[in-house]
Amino acid sequence: MNNLHAILIPMWVFYFLFLMIDARPELAGFSISHMVAKMEAQSPGVPEVIRVVHHQDLNKRILVALVVSSTLLGAILLFLLCVWIYRRRTSKLDDGECRKDLGSVSMIDYKLLEAATDNFSKSNVLDEGSTGHVYKARFDDKMLAAVKRIEYGGLDAEREFENEVNWLCKIRHQNVIKLLGHCIRDETRFLVYEMMQNGSLESQLHGPSHGSALTWHLRMKIAVDIARGLEYLHEHRSPPVVHRDLKSSNILLDSDFNAKLSDFGLTVNLGAQNKNIKLSGTLGYVAPEYLLDGKLTDKSDVYAFGVVLLELLTGKKPVEKMGPTQSQSLVSWAIPQLSDRSKLPKVVDPVIRDTMDLKHLYQVAAVAVLCVQSEPSYRPLVTDVLHSLIPLVPVELGGSLRITEPLHLKEPSSTR
């Protein structure tokens, strides 16, 4: 578009100049009549016929230049108009219509979403995020789903929306959220996901219940589920995929506390032109090397996984406020504690302190410490992490640990 402007501006000047000369010759010191008079004064011996022919030839040249420039200008304007109309049609759709170029995910009519959420009633709000609300939706066949409503957030938000739809078209895994459909209405975007009845891991750990529903074994199962999802992205996709925004709020739990990765708006292929990728992520989860110089690898996800594992162990947030202007990261606080076995039991979330296995605690703490190492090469592969954690999960929950005591999925509420 900038190149067209470079061509268009001088042509406008050329066109305007000749219009002024033709319309008001007295304003132009080099009008046609003046040029002829000057020629007569300077060449009194030139036959009149030569001067007339020269005059006519000059007029023809000017006329040809005007016709050519006007035609070219009209063609450029027509082209720009076509481009503008095309962009308008592809960026803004009619009411209720969904874009048809976003992969193979179903397009859902806006009126259907409106009816399923009772006109996006406040009573159906499941969660509130920085980009919009998530609503519970009940469709005609009694199927429950979650509708994420994304208000206009500029070009970055639009790119993230399209990126998420395109990725979730390609990814099919038991530990990755399933996208059921999408819709666009004016500047608002909608994503329809499978229903995850227990919300996000963040809301379970840091919400009103303070993690009381999450037993030690359930927390280990959730950690294994997350690792399985990451292993699929890192090891079973070609090229490997980096999530880039792994955090407890992007880990969703179904009715059986099966964990699934969500929010793929920032996901990229490993090996893509990463130097052109905008630095993104969430404070407390971003790996140091990515934060400092934008170096992105699969170990960036491993670091974020380590932070989530620390959340599961301690029940603390990734960044805790220490005062009006001070805060402390969970990693900087936990590393010294986890490295001292005598201090380790004291930093564990009180909710699980009485039910955990001390030997298993040491193993999980060691895995967490390795995952959050500042040097990426010291961090383990997610496959190694998975193999370390699976033996800590009961068979009934998808692991390999066999226990003789009855497995209780929920414990009585307790305060931290």
TrEMBL record:
Keywords: ATP-binding, Kinase, Membrane, Nucleotide-binding, Serine/threonine-protein kinase, Transferase, Transmembrane, Transmembrane helix. Residues 120-390 form the Protein kinase domain. The chain crosses the membrane at residues 6-23, 62-86. It comes from the Eukaryota. InterPro entries: Kinase-like_dom_sf, Prot_kinase_dom, Ser-Thr/Tyr_kinase_cat_dom, Ser/Thr_kinase_AS. The keyword Transferase applies. PROSITE patterns: PROTEIN_KINASE_DOM, PROTEIN_KINASE_ST. It holds the Pfam family PK_Tyr_Ser-Thr. GO terms for molecular function: ATP binding; protein serine/threonine kinase activity. SUPFAM superfamilies: Protein kinase-like (PK-like) (SSF56112). PANTHER family: OS01G0750732 PROTEIN, PROTEIN KINASE DOMAIN-CONTAINING PROTEIN. This is Probable receptor-like protein kinase At1g80640 isoform X3. The gene is LOC111460734.
